[in-house]
Design a protein that fits this description.
By secondary structure, the protein is α/β, with parallel strands linked by helices. It is 58% helix and 13% strand. The protein has helices at residues 6-14, 43-55, 66-75, 89-92, 134-146, 156-164, 175-183, 211-226, 229-238, 258-264, 266-297, 303-318, 321-336, 342-368, 371-379, 384-414, 426-437, 440-470, and strands at 18-24, 33-34, 40-41, 57-63, 80-81, 95-97, 102-111, 126-130, 149-153, 170-174, 188-189, 196-201, 204-206. A hairpin with a 5-residue loop joins strand 2 (33-34) and strand 3 (40-41). Bound molecules: asparagine.
Amino acid sequence: MYFISYTSLHDRCFSKKTHYNITTDVTYPPFEFQKQNGQYTGIDVEIIRTIAKRENFSLDLKPISFNSGAQMVLSGQMDGIIAGMSITPERKRVYDFSRPYYRTGVVWAVSKKSNITKLSQLRGKTVALKTGTASADYGKSLQKKYGFKITYFNDSNTMYNDVVVGNSDAAFEDLPVMQYAIKNGLELKIPKQKVANAGWYGFAVRKGRNKALLASFNRGLDSIQKDGTYDRIIKKYLGQSQRHYSGNSASDSGSSSMWQLLKANFPSFVNGIIETLELTVVGIILASIWGIVLGVMGVAESRFFRGISTFIIYIFRGLPLLVLAFFIYIGMPHVLDAKIPAFVAGIVTLTLNEGAYTAAFVKGGFQAVDKGQMEAARSNGLSYWQSMHHIVMPQGIRIMVPSFINQFIITLKDTSILQAIGLVELTQTGNLIVARTQQGFQIWAIVAAIYLIMITLLTWLSNWVQHKIKA
Ligand code: ASN
C-alpha cells in the first residue's frame, strides 16, 4: 500500500502522535490527484499534510471514491474527509465542518463539439453525474424540469470521459474543478458560466466525533492562511497549467505507446499487483479452509450440522460480493463501534463469499461418490467418519480438484471488486493511471494482460500442486 509512507508507519509505531485515517477523493484535480510516481498531491493533500505537520498528528490519506469515503466517515471507519467537499445544509446534519477553505459552486459542461447552449436543449438527452456529490444533487433537481436521463459515475474522470466520447451529453461538476480540467486540456466546455448553489469547501468529520481533529484543522488552517502558505499552495496549482488531460481519450492520441506507459507507471503497477496477490493468496487459503469445513459439515451425519452448512452457503452465495464488502467495511463499524482495516474487511469478504462456493462444491463432490462405497465401508465395520475419511473423501477430493482451480481463478478476479472499499489493487491502480494519463485503451489493455498472466501462472501452479499431491 504505497500511500502508507515509511514516516507514517514509523510515526504510528514509535511515537505518541495522534494518528488519523483521512479519506480523499480518488481523483479531483486540482484538489487531489495522483502523480506519475504514485504519490498523491493537490491543494487538499498539501493543506492536510501541512496542517498535520504543524499540529503534530500523523495521518494515512486514503483515496476512496467520494461517495464511499463520505460514508466511511459516518460509519467511523475514517476520522475525516478532505475531498473538495461542499458544506451543505443537509450534510451539516451529519457532519461537523471546518471553517470553509475554498469557494465553489456548480456548473454544467458539454463536449467541445456540442452545440448545446441551454439546459432546455437537454430534453431526452443523457446527463452524467457523480454519485453522492452536491453537483449530482443539483443536476438531479433539474431532471424533471428539463426532462433528461441520468447516468451515475463514481469518479469525476470517468464521468468527464463519458461526455467526451459522446455517451452522455452533459455533466454537472464544481466550477473550480471543471475550470481546471478544461484549462488542462479536457475536451469539454462550459456553455454558460452561471454558477448554481454557490458555497464553500470544508474539511469534515462525523458529527460530534473527532472534535480534537477538527480543532487542529481549524487552527492549522488559520496558521497557513496567516503566514501565506495557503496562498502559495493555491498558486502552485492554479498559477500554472499542469497538463492532466491529453485531450482525446481514444487511442488515437498516440502520445505514449503501451510500453512507455508501462515503464512510466511501473512502480504503481507493481504496488497494484502486490496488493492483488496478497488478497488472492490469503483469500484463497482462508476461503478453502472455511469452504472445506463447511462442506464437510454439509455431509455430516447430524442434521443440525448439515442445516447450519446449508444456511451459511445459502446466505453468502446469495449476497453479491460488493454488498458483502460494503456491509462488512461500512456497515459493521456502526454496530461494533470499531474500525476494521480495509485489508481485513476485504479478506473476510473473500473468505465468506468464495468459501460458500467452495463449500457447495466440496459438499457436492462428497455426495457424488457412489453411495455403495459408503454402504460397503459401513458393512465392513467402519464408523461413519472412518468411512468418510478413508473411502469417500479421497474419491470426492479427486472430483473437486478442477472446481478448486476454478474457484482460485474466480477469487483472483473478484479481488478487483474490493477497490470499492479503498484497496488500491490492480484495477484501482488502472483507474488512477487512466485518470492521470487519459490513455484508457492502453492502460486497460495492460491491466487485462496482467490479469491474464497472473491467472495463467495461478493455473499452472495449481496443476503442478495437483500432480505433486497425486504423485
Ligand atoms: N464536490 C463534491 C461534493 O461536494 C465532492 C467531490 O466530488 N469530491 O459533493
